[in-house]
Amino acid sequence: GRLEAYDDKGVLANRVVETTPGRILQAQILPNPSFENWTNIIPGVDEPADWVCTNRLCSPFFGNNPQEVFQTTGPDAISGSYGVKISTIVLTSNPFAGTIPDTISFMFTGTIQGTSSIAQGFAYAGIPDTLNFWFKYSPSGIDTGNMFFQMWRSSMSDGSTVQVAGGSWEVDTTTTNYTLMKVPITYVDSDIPDSA
Question: Three-state SS for 50?
Fold first, then answer.
């Protein structure tokens, strides 16, 4: 589902710390919103619990690619004990050539089911108008950081999904201090979503 972060050497944390008028997608409904919980996925490599990232490609099964998502502490944790740092990597062995690029960085809400099935997103029913998060960003070269968000509903008849709302944001300049970003959510369907 589709809270995804793509960037180079940026630290992105999803944590709402203030209230604004309107409906806000509150951090407490996001899975592991302040990145306090981490799961060991292969020896020496962790990823935030309830999130999926390219760290899975560090496995010897996929060619021992470099790690791209890291747990941070201290000043790189906006609240709580931990934060997350996402760095762009160049895959040394691309097991999905033609499907994903060699230069990559991503993280999204979801879980791996079994050995290869990805369940994206999380259950959610509401109609927020804003997604708030804190970020820092340090680009390398001409890189750009992006955040995409979608909310959808499942079709009862055939199991497909229909997008109800979404939002996006982009950064390409250095932001050395944590900054609160408020991304408007645009609705493209009048139904109430059941997932995000």
Answer: coil
